[in-house]
## 1
Amino acid sequence: MRVPSRLPRELNGRESFRVSDGLVLGVTAGRLRSSDLEAPFWGIRSSSSPSTIDALCSAYSHRMPERAFFCHQTATQLLGCPLPLRLSDLLPLHLGVIAGDAPVRAQKIITHRLNVAASDLRLVEGHRVLRPARLWCQLAGELDLKELVAAGDFFVARRARLCSVADLTRTFNGFDRLRGAETVRAALDLISERAESPQESHLRVAFARAGFPAPEVNEDVFDERGLFVARPDLRFSTFGICVEYEGDGHRVSMSQWRHDVTRTRRLEELGWRVFRVTGADSADQFSLLVTQLARVLCERGWRGPDEVQRKKYQLLLTERR
């Protein structure tokens, strides 16, 4: 088997490069077609097949128009925001061009013409992307309510602070028309900067649809001596109820499992009723959990659902597929 010749030192160590650059450096067309090089996009070669969104965007950036930027799912993935499985494919890349500029016509690329100003763009790991608040509004046409709340929670979360709820609201109000506008209006009332996982976000949406009072998010619980006991994912302090979402990490880690048992016991000793939730509960939109939680809320003094709130969110019940 013939071993491909070495590439010029100018190309060594580069994850990707333009075919035209290789030709200028004396690399033959045949060498550029060798099996040790991948062609992630037309006119681009890479030493290995790009397997991350950052690597794909870096590869395409070699032939990206000067004023173009990444948007939609691509920009969302670059920011690290969780998306539902149906939107998790890395390709095609979503590329934004300023209205009036020529669209990009290329395989593995979807072009969106957008009215944007320089202030609408950000640099993320060297990539131009639509700013988070504008991007979140853009996602409203693709996400259902629980997914849009989860994305909003991620953008405003204290650990990242990519934007604020005020930024989201102000950006939304700047649109004359927006696909998914009703979903945005509902989501803005539910977003929390204290949320730490999409599952917490989905639970809060399920509770809002049931007409429950708004739970407190990731707030500390202390005992009668002022000592820290736990920080439940969600809690209804007025009614002494905590809700904890437990992913697989809580199941497979012995130390985590023991910690969870001890924490639950301490909360119950203080009079809290603890609901431990798993992924299995989400299969039916948390309907069984909601029924059980409603009963306990009533036992502890709740007067029943807010019908105006419940009807508002029930109108947005349909999931995106």
Note: The longest helix spans residues 254-269.
## 2
Amino acid sequence: MSLLSRIRQAIDGLTEWIGRGAALLVVPLTLAMSYEVVSRHFFGSPTLWAYELGFMLMGIHFLLAGPAALKHNQHVRIDLLYARFSPRWRGLVDLVLMLTLAIPAVWFIIDRYGAFAWQAFETGERSGQSAWNPPIWPFRFLIVAAFGLLLLQMVATCIRCIEAIAGRRNYPYE
């Protein structure tokens, strides 16, 4: 097994592990929203924290689903032509698009949003969305981390594409 294949497998394993963990975020999200509904409608006492906790948990859950979807080839694509391509051509098309569009875009987001998250940390910025008003920097750093994982998974996908172009795998279905 080549070094690139081992790197790809390590990244795939990390993505799988984090993706399964992220799926568990649905549990506290559901509990928080259920508590809010019961508290608001049955006791007339809405919480100060459920709204913000809900959007933070859902946001991270959604962002961490991206790398897992990429790993499992679950992203939506219009495949009128793509489905007819051989595995080598699919690998080549995906590699070119990944290197020229996707990776630079995600790198740009990490760079810009990372600075934004750091500024929130330095200034002690708070959310300003509710009376709870928690510090926002942990959430922003989690967004940067999620895009970092997406970037790593894009590297693994590029390796998978290279393996397909070399004829060593039936991309992307293997």
Note: Residues 69 and 75 are 6 Å apart (CA to CA).
